[in-house]
Amino acid sequence: MSGLESKIPDKQERINHIFKNQLYGIAITELTSLLSRRSVYCSKTANGKYSICETFDDEQGNLRYDRMQHTWRNGKCTYCGASQEVYDREGR
Fold it and tell me: What SS3 state is found at 57?
């Protein structure tokens, strides 16, 4: 925030710039995406009423989550590292 103060004097404009252009994340579950957005944007959606960033047109902002199928190799998912044994257990 302080490093951009001389270039972007308005505090809200600085916040919008930082959150839109400098913060990114990828969540591996829907729950972690919601928790991350709540922590970063102070809202479960990036464009929500209480979000501290005012520039996003969509709910995910720069904290993305897309449901993917696991691709198993040697008992681990090649994308997220999840254990195939845990996911294949009875009751899932």
Answer: coil
